[in-house]
Write a structure and sequence with these properties.
This protein is elongated. Helices cover 61% and strands 0% of the residues. The chain has 419 residues and is mainly α.
């Protein structure tokens, strides 16, 4: 119990520190200020205009000219997204942003602005900003600590502060990429292209800490969240990791984020679940397994493993209603016997159930219908897992050849209910 209380105190302390820094503009969800906080939803959902304007506000005192370049690019993006200002609040936003740009130009005090030099000035500022904040060195240090599995409050504080720097760099990179299209391909344009290629190969420095998540950062490593260092969580992540015994995924199947392939990638491919549902339920399963393991009170090894008792607890709890449904209808379960299925199959079935529920819309309020859907899809999954190659489930293949659980399973039921 002492270890559980210690873990809980560490997690609460880390959360409080992160919340304090978040409200100061350094946390996981940076709060936009000024014009950055006034970006209309119709523009913010499809672009990073708010992040670019936030970066412009933060570097205004350091380099007003670069701040002006960022604001002009944000205005150009808004104009391209909604040229007629049809969206709610778009006209007011554009008017306010143009007013700010004019103010920045007026402060130049008759200094001639050569916009042909914008890309060179932005590039020089980007390099200076990276050097001054030692981004490459700090990222290497953090990567070493991540691999060692160590965590400290000092490291957490430093990482949270770095997120502000990383967010600004990402905004600079996006504007650089946009402006480089018209740059000299043999001059600064070539340098920017090489930098962009380098970033894409080692994206952790500019995106790892800013990849969105609910509770557990699974898509990218995070040093600002203590929960990822708990042995139960590390063991749960390892438990759902892809095994060589699983059917082989196609070579062109893209693994999202900076993580290893896992069971959810197979379920996404064969049944066509939506990516957001996959991300949410991946976290849900990891937390459920980790919590069950923590309740066992088993001391953690250097290489933490999930006990079979924890797997069984989650399996029986999640599928309890389905088991009762089969018993009531005198139907045979989707598996031969509880003892006949290994831990991987149990985790696959639990994951499948949560994914069905997570994407079932109003059908989730019909528990018997969820049980019916799961019953047949579990049998499909059983057949798929027995093959060497992963193939889309026949029940979810659409007329155009794509795979979609929502279109083929949920939509027909929903439309029937709506009549």
């Amino acid at each position: 119990m002492a270890r559980v209380y210690d873990n809980w105190e560490r997690l609460v302390r880390a959360t409080l520190n992160r919340e304090q820094l978040r409200t100061a503009g350094l946390g996981h969800e940076r709060i936009g200020s000024g014009i950055a906080g006034a970006v209309p939803p119709s523009l913010g959902r499809t672009s990073n205009i708010d992040a670019i304007l936030q970066a412009a506000d933060e570097i205004q005192d350091e380099n007003p000219n670069v701040a002006r370049i960022l604001c002009e690019q944000a205005y150009s993006m808004a104009q391209n997204l909604d040229p007629n200002s049809d969206g709610r609040g778009v006209l007011q936003f554009k008017t306010g942003l143009m007013s700010i740009i004019k103010q920045k130009l007026a402060k130049r005090e008759n200094v001639r602005i050569d916009r042909n030099q914008d890309i060179e000035q932005l590039w020089e500022f980007y390099k200076l900003y990276k050097r001054r904040h030692r981004v490459d060195d700090i990222q290497r240090q953090e990567q070493n600590l991540q691999e060692s599995g160590t965590f400290s409050s000092e490291l957490e504080l430093r990482s949270l502060e770095m997120r502000k720097v990383i967010a600004t760099l990402r905004a600079l990179v996006e504007v650089l990429e946009a402006l480089s299209k018209d740059a000299d391909p043999e001059g600064v344009g070539r340098l920017i292209k090489e930098e962009l290629q380098r970033i894409k190969k080692a994206d952790a420095a500019l995106s790892g800490e800013l990849t969105p998540y609910n509770i557990v950062p699974l898509e990218a490593p995070s040093l600002t969240n203590a929960i990822g260092f708990f042995p139960e969580v590390r063991g749960a992540i390892s438990a759902i990791r892809y095994s060589e015994q699983f059917p082989r995924l196609p070579a062109d199947f893209e693994i999202s984020g900076q993580r290893d392939a896992d069971m959810f990638d197979l379920l996404e491919y064969v049944f066509g679940f939506q990516k957001d549902n996959i991300r949410n339920q991946r976290e849900n399963i990891v937390l459920a397994i980790a919590n069950a393991q923590a309740r066992l009170g088993i001391p953690a090894d250097a290489d933490p493993k999930i006990d079979e008792k924890a797997i069984n607890e989650v399996f029986l709890k999640v599928l309890d209603n389905y088991i009762k449904w089969c018993k009531y209808l005198r139907k045979r379960l989707a598996w031969n016997s509880f003892q006949a299925i290994n831990r991987d199959r149990k985790l696959f079935l639990v994951s499948l159930y949560f994914l069905i529920w997570g994407e079932a819309a109003n059908v989730r309020f019909l528990p018997e219908c969820i049980c019916y859907i799961f019953h047949h899809m579990a049998k499909e999954l059983d057949a798929i897992l027995d093959h060497g190659e992963a193939n889309p489930a026949p029940s979810c293949i659409t007329e155009d050849g794509s795979v979609s659980f929502l279109d083929k399973i949920i939509r027909p039921i929903y439309e029937t209910m709506a009549l």
